[in-house]
Amino acid sequence: MATADTSPPTPQTPPATPVANGNNGHSAPGGAAAGLVVGALGVVFGDIGTSPLYALRETFLHGAGMAPTPEHVLGVLSTLFWAVTLTVTIKYVTLIMRADNKGEGGVLALATLATRGLNGKGRTVRQAITILAVIGLALFYGDAIITPAISVMSAVEGLSAITPAFTPFVIPLALVILVGLFMLQARGTADVGRLFGPVMLLWFLVLGVLGAWQVVKNPAVLAAVNPLYAYYLIADQGLGIFWAFGSIVLVVTGAEALYADMGHFGRKPIRIGWLSLVMPGLLLNYFGQGAMIIEDPEVVRQVFFELVPKDYILVLVVLSTLATIIASQAVITGVFSLTRQAIQLGYLPRMEIKHTSETAIGQIYIPRVNWILMGGVVALVVGFGSSGALAGAYGLAVTGAMLVDAALATAVAILVWRWSWPLAVGVFGLLAIPDLAFFIANALKIPDGGWLPLVVAAFIYFTITTWRRGRRFVATELSEGSLPLRQFLQRMERVPDRVAGTAVFLTADASHTPAAFLHNLKHNKILHERIIILQVETMDVPRVPDANRVEVERLGKGFHTVIARYGFTEQPDVPAALRACRPHGIAYDEMETSFFLGRETLVPAQRSTLGRLRRDWFISLSHSASATKTFFRIPPNRAIELGNQIQV
């Protein structure tokens, strides 16, 4: 079971600023920049890029009071145009992407920046920021379980546009594609990833060309750029417009991915890709679909696939299926990446993390998360049966996450960018109005499936808060029996028998004697020739440069303390950290080194401070957590575990 005294501690600020990534917004050579833009197309824009498959269709099919009349079509187009402009282009691409944590983005990066801006002050604000980060993380998982299912199903359903005879094969084919995708995760995405960018480049070009073709036939549809059409639609529908908003929101789902995946490519390539290709391609396609609906309202049920002649529908189905597979892959990769960050920052239990590339740190595979996600996606496909039914469950988690991003961005603007609070609240408050409207609209869909992401998010929130509270409790229990290391050395008048070799004791606090050390001394009554008390710190930056990896201090009597620092996107490697100590006078020989790890056996107390439900779930999580020697890459044949019983 995982050890409390080796759990990821509270994130710290590194002693020196890590070297920035070459792709975090700095200029790059022309060829490299173009490659980053194409690469971003294959990862960052997958979710939002597949929205034309179902967004406009669902607006008219499931928006109460909506009809495919010219007035309503122009009103919907105007609404989605300004939603994309305000939420994606201005809020995320222009403003929020300025908030990068050493090149990394996402809700945890926003929370880290805001917390750092407090400079150790404002305990209440810090707690509020942490709560928002946990909520945003939980909502992300609630969204991630739906995206692959609705994307792939909406593409495969294009077969029904060829002939209704294909309809019975939609669900089985979607399941085969999705299960195959999850089965391939263990092999990594390095080879397949090279195809992602070019395929999505073709996808967005096809979207733009198909849409422009219809717009040329009916250029009057471009009048929808005028926001008055959106105003007229809202005025006409009244409160009923929220039913339409529940589907229009589908055009901005995936906007948060632009920010969350910023660390892979940098803000500049993402901005170039969005403004030069993705946004024009999407809007042209939406307007083209609108022009076609105005001309023939009957096409609304499969309007996307009606953009091409019937003989070419199969080609479009294949291309859209590839695009949705890529979109699903991007979501799965994002789940792996954010899960690793959450583990490193102490939000989730340790899990086995496999690196699928020797050169790309971001290419990882987390088996447990992969199979849980696959089970959830398969259940959704079978349970809901169509992308239209699943659309009712889509959107609530996304809009909730967008509201969290807006709140955290407001805090960053005040605390880090030094905006005046009226300016920060005014700007992000204004930009949050569409998010709030979409959130309310999706709340109306709770009986029709909107409950699903809420249940998933609530479970994740409960899990995160239970784990954090439980680890704090266990750490407190262990610290009560520990002794300051310097005080222990002063009291150690008679030196026990020493044996050759090195003993490494992992701990969360190198200034105190680890429980495993005291157990070993009490039962074996010997000490190794060299004792290393090793503390692994997770920093609030993505990566720590090698120059700042370790901090070594000699305490005398053969004792040393080593603090090894890792970023929240890195997996700790204890042997590598010890090798980095050689310039400090510590020679590491694996065959002469033993690693002593604490292992707590948690037993339920009659009256637990966690409460019965949290207590039982925390014990279960602790039992399922990956072993310390696996997570910290310690040679298993050199690891010795010493037990300790704790009541929780």
Radius of gyration: 27 Å
- What best-fitting shape do the alpha-carbon axes yield? elongated
Biggest sheet layout: 6 strands, mixed
Mean pLDDT: 85
Q: What's the count of strands?
A: 8
Helix content: 55-70%
Commentary on this structure:
This protein is an alpha/beta fold and 648 residues long. Helix content is 56%, strand content 10%. The protein is built from 26 helices and eight strands. The chain has helices at residues 30-43, 46-49, 55-62, 70-95, 107-117, 123-144, 147-156, 159-162, 170-183, 190-217, 227-237, 241-248, 255-260, 262-265, 267-295, 313-344, 367-384, 387-390, 396-415, 421-443, 451-480, 485-491, 515-524, 574-579, 612-624, 628-631; strands at residues 354-355, 364-365, 497-507, 526-538, 550-556, 559-566, 593-603, 639-647. The strands form two sheets. It has a six-stranded mixed β-sheet with strand order 5-6-4-3-7-8. It has a two-stranded antiparallel ribbon with strand order 1-2. Helix 4 (70-95) crosses helix 20 (421-443), helix 7 (147-156) packs antiparallel against helix 16 (313-344) and helix 12 (241-248) crosses helix 20 (421-443). The longest helix has 32 residues, at 313-344. It is elongated. The two termini are 15 Å apart. Residues 1-29 have low confidence and may be disordered.
